[in-house]
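I hope you will forgive my troubling you with a question about protein structure. I should value your view on which stretches of the chain appear to form regular backbone elements. Here, with my thanks, is the record as I have it:
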Amino acid sequence: MLDPLGLNSLTRAVYRALLQHPAWSICDIARHLVVSEEQVRDALDTLAGMELLRPSENTPGLFRPIRPEIGLASLLARSEIELHRRQQEIAATREAIAAIAIEYDATRSGDRGSFERLEGLDSVRSRLEELAYLAQTECMSFMPGGGQAPDSMEASQPLDQQALERGVLIRSVYQDSFRNDAETLRYAQWLTALGGQTRSSPTLPMSLLIVDRSIALVPLDPDDPRRGALEVSAGGVVAGLCALFEQVWATAFPFFQVHVDENGLSPIEQTLLRLLLEGQTDEGAARKLGVSLRTIRRTMSSLMVRLDARSRFQAGARAVQEGWL
């Protein structure tokens, strides 16, 4: 599970070989791993760039591997810092979006061509149909909450197909809770088979659609999508929304790929433990994860058994002690 640190299987194998046999040459490593010397050199360049190898002071041409508890721990620390930075950027972008929407709602002034209010679901769906027809290069979307409504998917299917046939790139991030909805799963599978790209994340900040990186739709009220949406075409705001999408996309997982971390935790289980430490109730966690209260309690019960914990507080403490968080 060192891929997130940038170590693929061959690079890991070369690193392990040098840890066990520090006097081996490139030829020795290539013979042992049954790969070419060029592949070994590429792996050594990667390891040196990650500061996991240093040139040998005693034998020119050989490398001295850095102890894993030092070198790998340093890599992990840098990854954690980068992840924290990206999370802060997402939070800051979300706050900026909320501030812009509130300001627009309060003042009703400025460039109306840059901000258009779409009242109710009917006007939103009509505009979605227009945008899907007009899209030329790319459509990006967040799909939070439970399963999609059947009539919504039925209306979207021919539009998505036409866009894909025109060469439009469609990228969608679903919430992990959608995996429990058979109709949504079938739709995502159909979209992927036609060339669309789908990923999922335990939580999503809001509903979002961006077309050709020039027009975006965000909900007027994230808690009540039936109220309508705000159409945004102001360049700076759309650029911020594109950055938010790319950050979430980078940390999401392919929709049809089952992912667990080195502790056997799914993304939903990881997020539930973090929400527990933040003091969230079962009801609050269910809303954030887009799943039923029953699912939350069943998942929490399973985690407590695995952690041999008798209370939620003890489960959170042991998750930290075990390095799960």
